[in-house]
Amino acid sequence: MDTNFTRLVGALCLGGIVCLLTYALYNIFLHPLAKYNGLLLWQAFRLPFVISMITGDLPHQVKKLHDHYGTVVRLVNKIMLDFARFWPQLFPRAQERVVQEHVDLLMEKLRQEVDKSHTNSGTDVNVLKWFNYTAFDIIGDFVWSSSFGCLDKLQYHPWIQVIAQFKTALILGALKFYPPLDSLLTAVTPKSAMANLWMIWRTTEDKIAARLQYNDARADVMSHMIAASKTSTELHMTPEEVEI
Fold first, then answer.
1. Tens of pLDDT along the chain (244 residues)?
2. What SS3 string covers the chain?
């Protein structure tokens, strides 16, 4: 029995190695995106990308890849563009109006606080918090054409409060690339422990779903993703990739 068990384990290991090699060779040489340049290991497997994302090193690694390979870099079944070079096209001068609207609202709210101070013998204002309100509202508008409403309500959106647990959220996002592990984690983790983090993903999914309904929305990050997905199978992004 020991011999049979050893043979079974050996066969399983050998089969796993063959599958990995086949998967890697297909990705490197036969994948539809094989014509694009990239680091060999990153072309063969998604794991280096996921590890870099979880450790927070992904922006630095991607910059190194762009510096070496140019504007377009391939990562397994997706390509990454050096958006810094396309920033003027992605966000034309018309986007200045969006920023100006939020800045005007910030100044209006600050003036209201000043007016209150005349009647309340002075009022302390946490300027950092107010700038954060403005920054997140602008980010929401640029990404989804939908503000978080922080300045209007003078409080953080729950999504922003929970995003402080950013590293855990990255791990959950990474697991979305591996559905079996994602399902296993969901099954074994108490719902109470995951409630805030699932709220991040639900809010993101809701924002994306709402944005996809805006047929006449102005240019934002999502509009370029949508246009690329519709016009090119190579640039098509899955819902999981859009969320990440």
1. 567 778 888 888 889 899 999 999 999 999 988 899 999 999 999 899 888 888 888 889 988 999 999 888 998 788 887 766 666 665 667 678 888 999 999 999 888 887 777 666 666 778 888 898 999 999 888 877 788 889 998 888 877 766 656 666 677 777 777 777 777 877 777 676 667 667 777 777 777 777 777 765 566 666 666 665 566 565 556 555 555 5
2. CHHHHHHHHHHHHHHHHHHHHHHHHHHHHHCCCCCCCCCHHHHHCCHHHHHHHHHCCHHHHHHHHHHHHCCEEEECCEEEECHHHHHHHHCCCCHHHHHHHHHHHHHHHHHHHHHHHHHCCCCCCCHHHHHHHHHHHHHHHHHHCCCCCHHHHCCCCHHHHHCCCHHHHHHHHHHCCCHHHHHHHHHHCCHHHHHHHHHHHHHHHHHHHHHHCCCCCCCCHHHHHHHHHHHCCCCCCCHHHHHC
